[in-house]
Amino acid sequence: RRPRVFVARRIFPEVVAQLREHFDVSTHDTDEPLSRDELIARLQGCDGVFVAGTEPIDATLLAACPTLRAVCSMAVGYNNIDVPAATARGVVVSNAPGVLTETTADFGFALMMATARRITEAEQYLRAGHWKQWSVDGMAGADIHGSTLGILGMGRIGQAIARRGVHGFGMSLVYHNRSRLPAEDEAALGARYLDLPGLLKAADHLVIVVPYGPTSHHLIGAAELALMKPSATLINVARGGVVDDAALAQALAERRIAGAGLDVFEGEPAVHPGLLEVPNVVLTPHIASASLPTRLAMCQLAASNLRAALTGQAPPTALNPEVLPLR
Ligand code: GLV
Ligand code: GLV
């Protein structure tokens, strides 16, 4: 029989059509996320599942879906998937790195610029009819060009943001990462490696691009925010939970840092009420990878992974390729 695949999110119809050429496909066609129990029910008898960064693929689900052989996500972050549990069951897991790097870096840079130059705050002021006269420091913000860009997490996306800052805007670059870049990459960017406290103290604009997991939970909390310059901005395009949102809301309210730009939140789509109350924050609904061409490319990469995984080939971006020879 043809392998059975479940598409757990509404995705582009042309990608579903491609999948139907190879598989018996059933779909969940709304943007309403399925609960774990609903997912388990829909996955009975399925060989593969197409997910985004939101479906909870944990040990309980995997145990309840014994026919599942492949979990393919269109997201790059995979903190919603218990990869070791999947590996233990011989289930191949893939994410979608690479295809969203430049688009996500564009957005991180846009969020940084909007935050530093107070673009959304200024627009709200104008729309509210408050613009009555010119003022010497009205909506005055911080400069991007010539300032110090701090990157926390120097993966593909972090490096793409760094290139924009250094080559496009003449920024100085400091960074922290689990491992240092090769010396020639550091030299090409003029990058200075610092420990986390050093990074927090040095950055004019801190951009967070680390994956979420137990070691990055609340990596930035009250103590870390206290190390930042009062004039600094913090940008998070990684995952909610890397930043302690309650501590951040308080630091913003007390102007202990100048501003923040946030695309991701703890417990999203809920947003900490303290963040909604302060003016010096730019808030977006987890859209850093959301250009149409990139979202399509992410779906197509997940579909390619599914095709390979269920036809005995190596999925291009498997996270646990070691399970494949076992099957
Ligand atoms: C988006 O957050 C992703 O991980 O792709
Ligand atoms: C994701 O692609 C990253 O490594 O930053």
Structure in words:
The chain is of the alpha/beta class and 327 residues long. It has 2 domains: 129 residues, NAD(P)-binding Rossmann-like Domain (Rossmann fold, 3-Layer(aba) Sandwich), CATH 3.40.50.720; 183 residues, NAD(P)-binding Rossmann-like Domain (Rossmann fold). The chain has 13 helices and 12 strands. The strands form 2 sheets. A 7-stranded parallel β-sheet has the order 8-7-6-9-10-11-12, sandwiched between helices. The protein has a 5-stranded parallel β-sheet with strand order 2-1-3-4-5. Helix 5 crosses helix 7. The radius of gyration is 21 Å and the shape is globular. The two termini are 18 Å apart. The mean pLDDT is 97. The structure holds glyoxylic acid (2 copies). The site of one glyoxylic acid has 8 residues, from helix 7.
Structure characteristics:
327 residues; oxidoreductase activity; Rossmann fold; binds glyoxylic acid; EC 1.1.1.-; D-isomer_DH_CS1; alpha/beta; 13 helices; D-isomer_DH_NAD-bd; D-glycerate dehydrogenase
The CATH topology of the largest domain is given as: Rossmann fold
Trace the largest sheet across and list its strands. 8-7-6-9-10-11-12
N-to-C CA distance: 18 Å
Specify the biggest β-sheet.
7 strands, parallel
- Can you tell me the overall shape? globular
Name of the CATH first level of the largest domain:
Alpha Beta
Q: Kindly state the mean pLDDT as a whole number?
A: 97
Oligomer: single chain
